[in-house]
Amino acid sequence: MANALRQHQPIAPVDAVPRLHALLADDMQAVNALILQKMQNPVALIPQLAAHLIAAGGKRLRPLLTLACAQLCGYRGAAHHVLAAAVEFIHTATLLHDDVVDHSNLRRGQDTANAIWGNKSSVLVGDFLFARAFELMVDADSLPVLRVLANAAATIAQGEVQQLQTANNLLTTADDYYSVIGAKTAALFAAACEVGGIIAYRPATEIIALRQYGMELGLAFQLSDDVLDYTGVPGKEPGDDFRDGKVTLPVILAHAAGDVTEHDFWQRTLGNEQFADDDFATACKILDKHNALAQAMEHAQNHAQAAQNALAIFPDSEWRHCLWAAADFAARR
Question: Residues 250-264: pLDDT tens digits?
Answer without folding.
Answer: 999 999 999 999 999
